[in-house]
Amino acid sequence: MLPRRRTLRCRGHSATGLAIVPAAGATTDHAQRHVTERHGDASWKRKLARREVVRELRRPAPIRSLHAPYYRAVSDETKVQTRHGELTPSEIADALPGTGEVMASVGTAWWKCAYAARGGNWELAAYFARRVRGLQRGLAVTRPKYAGDLAAFEEQKLDPVLRAIEARAVTDFEHTFASATDRANELHVKWAKPYIRWVLPDEPPRDLHLGPIAAMDR
């Protein structure tokens, strides 16, 4: 037997008894009074407040929905700072090139693409075909009502032209170029502009070298 237990036995008590007696002596009223006193203490309230703050800091931030009022649409009265001054979104939109201006640039690039390919300057032909693609993609952004037709035109008509240029296949280029031109004119009719019918000019452009690149240094 351990010395401590032997001492307890001599005194007529047990270790279990000693552990239970103090607990049994504490009444329910005493326990409630003790809790009430602690909750009424100012320092205890400050500790509770600090714990609440810590909980809030550790809590993950809520994910706001894009449709929530937190994200508000930019008002037309909002000014956007540019290098030249402040503009509203409407003023910026009005300053963008119109459909007519974009399509005039497309026509010029399409004209030069054809004669560059016919002259054997395939790199220049590819440049202008990609130029047409870029202009039309920009138009799809500023004029969303044309976006579907422009995407279909790129996939079904313009991509074959680019593949023919990459392969340097003269016959395939002439066929795909003519097919794309016909489809463009059909779209003019669909877009209520039947009076616009693009035709390839009989004369090549005179502001560029259209022959093979190797002939440029001669």
Outline of this structure?
It is built from nine helices and two strands; from the N terminus they run ααααββααααα.
Keywords:
single chain; 218 residues; mainly alpha; 2 domains; two-stranded antiparallel sheet; 2 strands; 3% strand
Written account of the structure:
- This protein has 218 residues and is mainly alpha-helical.
- The protein has 2 domains: 3-58, no CATH class; 99-217, no CATH class.
- 64% of the residues lie in helices and 3% in strands.
- It contains 9 helices and 2 strands, in the order H-H-H-H-E-E-H-H-H-H-H.
- The chain has helices spanning 3-10, 15-25, 28-40, 42-58, 89-95, 99-119, 122-142, 147-167, 170-190; strands spanning 80-82, 85-87.
- A two-stranded antiparallel sheet has the order 1-2.
- A hairpin with a 2-residue loop joins strand 1 and strand 2.
- The longest helix has 21 residues, at 99-119.
Q: Helices, strands, pairings?
A:
Elements: H1 3-10, H2 15-25, H3 28-40, H4 42-58, E1 80-82, E2 85-87, H5 89-95, H6 99-119, H7 122-142, H8 147-167, H9 170-190
Antiparallel strand pairs: 1-2
Helix pairs in contact: 6-7, 7-8, 8-9
User: Which sheet architecture does the biggest sheet show?
Assistant: 2 strands, antiparallel
Number of domains: 2
User: In which order are the strands of the major sheet placed?
Assistant: 1-2
Helix content: 55-70%
**Which strand-content bin applies to the residues?**
under 5%
Rg over alpha carbons? 41 Å
Residue stretches low in confidence (pLDDT < 50, at least 5 long) are 5-11, 13-28, 63-72
SSE series: HHHHEEHHHHH
Tell me, what's the shape? elongated
Structural class: mainly alpha
Oligomer: single chain
N- and C-termini, Cα separation:
116 Å
Q: What is the number of strand segments?
A: 2
Number of helices: 9
Mean pLDDT: 78
